[in-house]
Amino acid sequence: MRNYIALIHKDADTDYGVSFPDFPGVVTAGLTLDEAREMAEEALAFHLEGLVEDGDALPEASTLESVMADPANRDGVAILVAWKSPAPKVVRINVTLPDDVLSRIDAYAAENGLSRSGFLARAARHEIERENAA
Q1: What element of type H or E holds 45?
Q2: What are the HicB-like antitoxin of toxin-antitoxin system domain coordinates in residue numbering (predicted)?
Q3: pLDDT at residue 113 greater than cutoff 90
Q4: What value does the mean pLDDT take over residues 59-76?
């Protein structure tokens, strides 16, 4: 799940407008605050799903401090809008491992409530993140 900051704006005799500082041009509105928030979730999901389909990287969310440091944003009320990314595609692979390593993987996975695949995916993520952090 990712959270992005949205800004709600309200002028006299207007609907509640919503904009996303991380996504200029992504705007929506609602008659009520609840409707504005619902519309914000839909607008964010639509935009992010389009980025994913196009193979574009999703930007890191701005911090509240950086959003509110912009004088143009100070008349808005900041809210967090969540996007639940679609489940990743699962692919079956064939891997060859020494039997002693496989036995250790299976024992560790069983002791920790993981499947073999779950353990291997977790180990791979750990190594990739460790490498990227270095």
Answers
A1: helix 33-53
A2: 4-124
A3: no
A4: 94
Closest by CA to 84, choosing from 24, 42, 126, 122, is: 42
Measured from the Cβ of residue 67, the count of other Cβ atoms closer than 10 Å reads 20
> What is the greatest pairwise CA distance in the chain?
72
Spans of all domains in the chain? 2-83, 99-133
Residues 2-83, CATH architecture: 2-Layer Sandwich (3.30)
| Chain centre to alpha carbon of residue 14 | 31
SS3 of 60-107: CCCCHHHHHHCHHHCCCEEEEEEECCCCCCCCCCCCCCCHHHHHHHHH
Encode pLDDT of 27-51 as tens digits.
999 999 999 999 999 999 999 988 8
**And the tokens for 56?**
């574009």
User: Measured between alpha carbons, how far is residue 33 from residues 21, 24, 131 in Å?
Assistant: 19, 21, 44
Residue 57 has pLDDT above 90, yes or no: no
